Amino acid sequence: MLTNFKNSRPQQFSFLFIVFLLLYFLVPENENSLLWRLPPLLKDIPLLINTLLDNLMFKWLTVPVYDPDWQMYEDKPIFRIITRSIADFLLFLIIFIREIFLGGLQTIGSITGGTFKEFKWLYLPAVPWTAVVIGLFILGYRLQGLGLAFIASIGFFYVSIFGQWEPTMETLSLVLVTAPICFVLGLSFGILGYLSKKVEKTLQPILNIAQTMPHFSYLVPILVLFGIGDHAGAVATIIFATPPMIRLTILGLKKISPEVVESGLMSGCNRFQLLFRVLIPTARRDILIGVNQVIMQCLAMTTIAAFIGAKGLGFNLKVALNGLKIGKAAEIGICVVIIAVVLDKLSLAWANKQKDYFANLNFYKKNLATIYFILLTAILGVIAYFSAFYFEEGFNYLYLIPFGEGLTIAPILDAGVDWIWETFFYYLNIFNKFLITNVLFVMRDAYLGMPVVSTFVLVMGAGYIIGGIRSCIIVGALILFIALSEYWNRALITAYMATFAVGVSAILGIVTGSLCARNEISAKFILGVCDFFQTFPSFIYLIPVILLFGITDTSVMIAAIAYASVPATRYTVEGLRSVPSSLHDAASMSGVSNFQRWKSIELPLAFPHIMLGINQTLIFALMMIVLGALIGTEDLGQIIMGCLSRPNGAGIGLTLGIFVSFICLAADNLIRTWADERKKLLGIE
Amino acid sequence: MSQSSDNSSNTPVIKCESVYKIFGNNALKLLENSNGQVDAKTFQEAGCIVGVNNASFGVQKGEMMVVMGLSGSGKSTLLRCISRLTDATAGKIFIDGEDLLSMNSKQLIELRRNKMGMVFQSFALLPHKTVIENIAFPLQVKGTNTRESMAKALEMVELVGLKGRENYFPRELSGGQQQRVGIARSLAVEPDIWFLDEPFSALDPLIRKEMQDEFLRLQAVLNKTIMFVTHDFDEALRLADRIAIMKDGIIEQLDTPDNIVLNPATEYVKKFTEDVPREKVLKIESIMDAYDSNNSSSTKVSKDAIIETLAESILNSKEILTVVDNNNEIVGSLNPTKVIKVIFGK
C-alpha cells in the first residue's frame, strides 16, 4: 500500500489536494494569524531600492563638473554623469537616423558644440518615402525574391499613404539604433558565456528574470536613471531585447560540432582566429535568428516605451487608446502589424540566405543592387524636388506625407465598431456580465480566501512530488519572498487571472493543435498562423478586445487568452508532429483508431513538449495581464502602471516586476523539471 | 635518450611513453595512488572514465600506424592526446624528439601550423567557405598571402581530384567529395605528420573503397608519417604498416597485419582475426620455407606479394616456386600446398 503510494503520482497529488482543501477550510480568516497571512517583513525593499537610486543619482561619488551656463564648478555624482552621457549618446543616434528619414541636420551641427535646438536652421531634406519603398523592394528581392520584395514595399507604401510615415519612421529609428546595440551586447555576452562556464552560470538566472519580468516594471527605474524621452525608451528596449540574443548566441555556438572546432585548432588558429573565422561564421544562422528575435523584441518594446516618452507609433497608439478612438487605434495597430511582418520576414530571409560565391563577378555585378538603389534614390529625389512646385498649395506628397494627411479608414472602422456595438451589445453584455459575476469574481474570491499556509502546502508539495526536496525549496523560497511583502493579495489576484487565462489557453491550444496536427497541410497552416500572431507586439492585442468588450476584466482576459493560446497551439502541433513515422506505422499495424492513436501514442510522446508550451503560455498570459493594467485591472499590474506616475515609483515597480517574474520562475521550475523527467523516461533527446 | 631533435632514422617521429588519459574530476589523484596500475572498473566506481591506459609506442618516419578499436575503446582519445586537442593526464609524448606536453600555446600553434594535419570523421568543413577557401584556410591562418595560398590550395584541389569544383560550397558536394576537401585541407601546409580520425567511416562502402585506394595512392607519393584511426578491421589490414588494437583504453596488440592475423596476442584480438580471409592479408613471405635449391623451379615470386594476388598462378604451376626479395635475391621457396592450406585450412 505504502510502496504503491510512493510510486503513484496521481495518488500523491490527490493526497496533497485533500490536505490543501482541509487547510483551506479549517484555517479561519484572521489578519493576525500567521497561518492566514504572513507579516509584511519585506515591505522596505522598495524603499531601499529608491534610496539606492537616489544616492546613486544625487549623492555618492561626486566629482566637480564645470557648468558653462553658470560659469562655475558644480558637484555631480559619477553615476549620474555616466547615465546621462549614455542617454545623450543614444539620443544623438536616434535623432540622427530620424533626420535621414524625416529631414534635418541638427545632430551633425551639434557636434560642433551646443544643443540640437541651436541648429534648427541647418536642414537637409529627408530621403523621400518613395525611395525608401523602392529600397525595401530591392532589399527584399536580393534577400529572397519577388514575393518578399512586394510584401516589404507594399507594406511601407500602405503606411505612407495612410499618413503614418512620420510616427513609423520615429519607431523605426528607435529600432535601427537599439537593434545593433542589442546585437553587439548579446553577441559579446553570448561569446563570454560560451567561453566560460562561470559566466554562463551567472548569466543564466539574470536572463531568466529579465525574460519573465513584465515590460512595465523596469520602465520606472529607467525613468529615474535616464530621464524621460526617446533615449529612455531606447535603454528599456536594449535591456528587454538583449537577453534572447545572448541565449541564441550561446545555443548556436554550443551547437557547432566539436570536430569543426578541432579542425580549426588543427589548422593552427589562435583564440581570436578560432572565434571570428571558425565559430561565429559557422553559427551564422543561429546568430542571425537571434538578430531576428532582437528586431522583433525591439519593435515590441519601442511601442510600449511610449509610456516613458518614446515617440512613434506606440505613442500615438497610447493617445488614441486613452481617448477611446478605436478606429484610429486600429489604424495605427495595422501599421504596427505591417511593420512587424515586414521586419520579421526581411530578417528571417537574411538568416536563411546562404552565402553565394561572388569572387568571379566584377565590381559592377557585385554591387548591382546598391547601384540601382542609389540611382533610383537620386531620380526619386529629383522628382520629389520638382513635385514641390506641382503640390504648391498643400503638402509635397511625393516627398513625405505628413501625419494624419493621408487616406484614412478610421471613420469606416468607427462605424463598424458602432454597428457591432448596436447589433451585438446586448449579447456581448450578457456574456460579459455572466463571465465577470459567475466565473471571474467567484474565482477571485476563492483565491483571496486562501490561507497562506494552504498556498504554501500546495505549491511546495507539488514541488516535492515533482522535483524532490530541491524543487520544493526553490519554489517555496520564490513564493515566500512575495508572501512577506505587502502585496500578497494583489499577487493572488494576478495568480487567479493567470490560472484562468492559462487554463482556457491550454485547452484551446491543445484542442486546436491536436485537430490541426492531423495532416501536414493544416499543421503547416496553423504554424503559419502562430508565426503571424507572434510577430506583432502584445500591445496590439488590446485593441480588438476593447472594441468588443470595452474596459473590463473580460477584455484583459480575452486578450491574454488570445495571446497565450499561440504558444500552446504551436507546441502542441510541434510535439504531435514530431512523433516518429515508424511509431505511427507500428500503431497502424496494431489497428488503432484515430482517437486511440492520439490518446495512447501521440499525446504521451508529445507531452513533455506540450508542457514546455504551457510554460510559455503562462509567461505570455502574465505579460498580457500586467499589460492589461492599461485598461484597468486590480492586480499587481495596476500598481506597476501606477508607479509610472508616482514620484517614488521606481522601487515598487521594480519589486513588483520581480514578484511577477518569481511567479513565472516558480511555475517554470515545476513544469521544466516535470517535462525533463518525462523526456528522460521516454528517451527523447 | 636524447631529447634534442636529431633526425637520425632511429628517432621515432611520434613517441609515447606511458600515456594516460582519464576523464573525471579527481583523475590525477586517483592515478597517482594507483601506481600506474589502472583498472577501468575501480576508476569508474570513483566517477572517472579511462580513455587511454598506459600507451607506449613509437611511429617511425614514413610509417603508417593504424589504431583499431570499437567505439569507446579510446582510439580517438589517443589520437587527440597526440595532437593535443586534449591534454593527456599523465605520461610523455614526443614529436620529433620535442616534448609535446610542455609546449605553451604559442609553440603548439606553430607546431600545428607547420607539422601537423588532421582529417575528421564528419569532414568538419567550414560551411561558409568554398572548397578552395576551406583548403587555403590553414595557410591563411598562418599568414600566407592570398595569392600564394590560393595557388597552393589549387594545387591541392588537383591532387585530390576535385578540379573544376573549387568554387563549390561544402553543402553542394557529396560525402566522398567533402572528405577529399578535408584531406586536401589537412595537406595544405605540407605537414610531416598526418592524423586521420576515422576519415572514411561516414561514407558508403563503395565510396569508402575508392577513397582507400585514393589514400594509398596519395601516401605512395607523399610518404607522410601517419596515425590512422578506424573501427574497421579490414580497413586497418588494408592500409597499415602496423596496427594497434585497442580495448578499454589499453593497446592489446601492436604489430604488423601479418603477425596479428597469424599470432593474435589475446582472445580479444583473436575474435577479430578469426573471420579474416588470410590469403587477403598474408604475404608470400609468411608461408615460405627455407630455400631448397633441388626442388625449386625457376619461376620466381616476390616475398612481399599478397597471397591472394598470386594464388591462381601458383596453384596452376603445380611446382615449388622460388621466392625473391626486392633486389631479386633468393630468400626461400614456396610449396603450393601451403597456399591451399592458407585458403581452405583453419
Task: Give structural notes.
The complex is a heterodimer of chains A (685) and B (346). By secondary structure, chain A is mainly α. Chain A has 28 helices and two strands. In chain A, strands 1-2 form a two-stranded antiparallel ribbon. In chain A, strand 1 and strand 2 form a beta hairpin. The two termini of chain A are 35 Å apart. The mean pLDDT of chain A is 83. In chain B, helix 5 crosses helix 6, helix 6 packs across helix 7 and helix 12 crosses helix 13. Chain B has a six-stranded mixed β-sheet with strand order 6-7-8-3-9-10, sandwiched between helices. Chain B is globular and about 65 Å long. The two termini of chain B are 44 Å apart. Chain B has 346 residues and is an alpha/beta fold. At the A-B interface, helix 12 and helix 13 of A face helix 4, strand 6, helix 5 and helix 7 of B.
CATH architecture term of the largest domain in chain B:
3-Layer(aba) Sandwich
Shape of chain A, please?
Answer: globular
Strand and helix order of chain A? HHHEEHHHHHHHHHHHHHHHHHHHHHHHHH
Radius of gyration of chain A: 28 Å
Pair of chains with the largest interface and how many residues each contributes: A-B, 22 and 35 residues
**Major pleated sheet of chain B:** 6 strands, mixed
Please provide the count of β strands of chain A: 2
Largest sheet entry of chain A: 2 strands, antiparallel
Please name the CATH architecture of the domain at 445-449 and 485-682 in chain A.
Orthogonal Bundle
- Unreliable stretches of chain A: none
Distance between the amino and carboxyl termini of chain A: 35 Å
Strand order of the largest sheet of chain A: 1-2
- Beta-sheet strand percentage of chain A? under 5%
Can you identify the CATH superfamily of the domain at 445-449 and 485-682 in chain A? Answer: MetI-like
Instruction: Please report the distance between the alpha carbons of the first and last residues of chain B.
Output: 44 Å
Strand arrangement within the widest β-sheet of chain B reads: 6-7-8-3-9-10
Question: What is the CATH homology-level superfamily of the largest domain in chain B?
Answer: P-loop containing nucleotide triphosphate hydrolases
CATH topology of the domain at 445-449 and 485-682 in chain A: MetI-like fold
Structural class of chain B: alpha/beta
CATH class of the domain at 445-449 and 485-682 in chain A: Mainly Alpha
Helix and strand element order of chain B: EHHEEHEEHEHHHEHEHEEHHEHEEH
